[in-house]
Amino acid sequence: DAGVTQSPTHLIKTRGQQVTLRCSPKSGHDTVSWYQQALGQGPQFIFQYYEEEERQRGNFPDRFSGHQFPNYSSELNVNALLLGDSALYLCASSQLGQGGQAETQYFGPGTRLLVL
Amino acid sequence: AQTVTQSQPEMSVQEAETVTLSCTYDTSESDYYLFWYKQPPSRQMILVIRQEAYKQQNATENRFSVNFQKAAKSFSLKISDSQLGDAAMYFCAYRGVYGGATNKLIFGTGTLLAVQP
User: Most buried by CB count within 10 Å: which residue of A12, A86, B18, B90?
Assistant: First the structure.
């Protein structure tokens, strides 16, 4: 049973560029969440996707956008990169439970983004 | 807003000994979930244990157990018979049950656990 996968593993960009990160959820999961983890910090919630719609968004600017495809995979796009966007970007998948609750989230290995 | 606090940036334990990692949280909700995740140097975040707030019984997973004190809003992780592979960053996380709080995990800043041979 494949777990959550993410690509690429590492990425180097320069300020002002745009980047796209990809995530494939664990088999049977329909919900994808994205987190940003700065060095030495806990992950911070960016947004969550279900049925190709953004369900909720954390405190991140509009430069951060996402998409979910019919096969439940997801992309995170960041425009106009800043030095402060350098971080580990984690994708987590889960199964939406009864009452609209997203059940336990399982994480991928992350994409390390460095902005120069 | 809910918050999660881990007051121990680093901890160390001897192999085969027991260590307890602390976590406190703040919420006005009565029902929620708490988690401990482990992030080894390879960086993949791995679920260690999960606790539902409505359950009085403390969760246990093999060598890992929690001490959940709802009134005190405390959720500590005990690792028994520590092994070298337990060395990692450990994160405590909270997830709400109602409304938008169900969608996201709120993490603490983590505790870096070193295991000495």
Answer: B90
pLDDT in tens, B12-30: 999 999 999 999 999 998 8
Write down the domain spans for chain B.
Answer: 3-116
- The reply to whether residue A42 touches residue B47, judged by beta carbons under 8 angstroms, is no
Residue type, B75: F
Q: Would you call A102 and B102 a contact, using CB atoms and an 8 Å cutoff? A: yes
Pairing mode, strands B74-79 and B19-21: antiparallel
Residue pLDDT, tens place only, A24-43: 999 989 999 999 999 989 99
Residues 75-114 in A contacting B (C-alpha not used; CB under 8 Å): 88, 90, 92, 100-102, 104-110, 112
Going from N- to C-terminal start, the domains of chain A cover: 5-111
Q: For A48-56, what is the mean pLDDT?
A: 90
What is the Cα–Cα distance from B90 to B88, expressed in whole angstroms? Answer: 6
Cα distance between residue B66 and residue B56, in whole Å: 11
Which CATH superfamily, name and number, covers A5-111?
Immunoglobulins (2.60.40.10)
| A102 closest CA partner among A44, A37, A33, A39 | A33
Q: Is the peptide bond before B41 cis (omega within 30 degrees of 0)?
A: no
